[in-house]
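[Q] Does anyone have a clean structure-token version of this?
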Amino acid sequence: MNSCTNDLRNKEVVNVCNGARLGYIVDIIFDVSDGKITAIVVPGESCGVFGLSHKEDITIPWCNIEKIGEDIILVRLESCPCPPPPPPKKKGLF
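[A] Here you go.
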């Protein structure tokens, strides 16, 4: 499958270990000697007013990419800086 960098940038990156939505690719790292992609970069967790303050970006080695789908890129990061999604709220009186 061939794809251009703009196609990759339009796909959301999700960690399969905890379901965390990491965001969209902001940079791609490649080896200039052979032209192969070695890693993708997603923005760090934002904080502060209007998300202006960011933690360090997350660099994901190409070998950690599990699957590239039409809309999503699944990656395996054992120690992700993002918290796992909260459990669903129970409906009812209690």
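[Q] Thanks! Anything notable?
[A] The chain has a mean pLDDT of 80.
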